[in-house]
Amino acid sequence: MAGDNLYDLFAARFPKEPGAVFLAVPGGRDLAYGALDPAVSRYANLIASLGAKPGERVVAQVEKSVEAVLLYLACLKAGVIYIPLNTGYTEGELEYFLSDATPRLVVADPAREEMLGRLAAKCGVPHLLTLDAVGGGSFADRAKDQPDASQSAQVAADDVAAILYTSGTTGRPKGAMLTHGNLASNALTLHEYWQWRPGDVLLHALPVFHVHGLFIALHCALLNGSRVIFLPKFDREAILDHLPEATVLMGVPTFYVRLLDSPRLTPGICRNMRLFISGSAPLLAETWEAFHARTSHRILERYGMTETGMITSNPYDGERVPGTVGYALPGISVRITGDDGKVVAPGEVGILEVKGPNVFKGYWQMPEKTAEDFTADGWFRTGDMATSAPDGRVTLVGRAKDLVISGGFNVYPKEIEEVMDAFPGIVETAVIGVPHPDFGEAVVAVVVPEKGANIDLDALHAYLQDKLARFKQPKHVAVVDELPRNVMGKVQKNLLRAAYGGLFSGKGAAQ
What we know:
The chain is α/β, with parallel strands linked by helices. 29% of the residues lie in helices and 24% in strands. It folds into three domains: 33-179, Rossmann fold (3-Layer(aba) Sandwich); 189-358 and 367-397, 3-Layer(aba) Sandwich (Rossmann fold), CATH 3.40.50; 403-500, 2-Layer Sandwich (GMP Synthetase, Chain A, domain 3), CATH 3.30.300.30.
């Protein structure tokens, strides 16, 4: 039905006190809730003046800023589809996105104006405006002359609010279409499940072109009318400076690893913290245990993806088990199926599938891919391999595309990684499969040692003898200073496979 605009859901929760701060920018200009709707309306009116009608697309490749958040909210209010792009994308990647999305408007950082202007002209984009991290640029300038009031577009819950492009590590990137209803249902569920309360303050150091920072973090804060300490990026010292005035931190595992490296991380500095949340990449059990020992706080790990928002979470009240991602959220169903499509028994590995109001509408202009990723009875195949306990608690094993089949045996990388991470001197391990002339694929482990540690590979191989079946044991171990990661902290195993893919291809190759 009409009247399901996500922006209106947020606006109904704005604090009655107009001076209540929404975005608190250390060293910069704060944005109060009382100024939020007028600013959003000016942006929405400018978008409408450029001829963008509900359902048309607006692409943004801008730095994290108050203005970037206003642009997103304005797109919601105007009923246009918001498409945030990673600020690290190259010219070739951007050309694909613009030609695929066919936006009415591109909003770019001024430093990229020349390049994006060239691409916009090539791709037939009618309008290109700029927006910088401190409120400057042609978009902000033109918005100043717009009226500071507007009516929200009448949209249905099933209308698309945003398109987020997946990483595209296999094949061309896919645009996941998320509706107003998808985003609203997930935000309301998380707000309740994580027990947001009056006075909560969110410490925000995530990017805002990604589900975690844009949707999960900001949506919960908006529903709660919370103050958000809005940092431009993760900076360990800045996080520690502001922890005493915050109650909630959402981060990727790297945040917590780096915080643990500081002697400033103490129970005292966390005295007002209510909740530490981790996601976007697996959190090592060792990190969880070390953080708990140092701060007495149990990090809450959850699991989701671009196409679904959050799917599972460790409980707010109850046991948070390190290495697991908890239970299906209220209103969301999960199941784990084998190659035959049948649900597997607890403890058996299969593909995790999900159904619920959080599940996206499909891939932009890819009906065949959409159909391929849904089962006949309407479940979305996540591509993540998992097991479940008898009580429904979910543990992720890895991506299906990361499964290694060596000599006809299935090898699940996470199992090997956990065993190797327990070896003295190893901080982290990434296990991949690479082509092998005899086994089809060989297990290769890439390990990061502790600072100053020297990994004795002979001792490591001896250590693995009675802990892993022979077909699971790495045929090659590489030692590196750090693993390649994307901006959300996920290990880029595709880059590792490319780097080590030729290990066994030549005569005399490593065995």
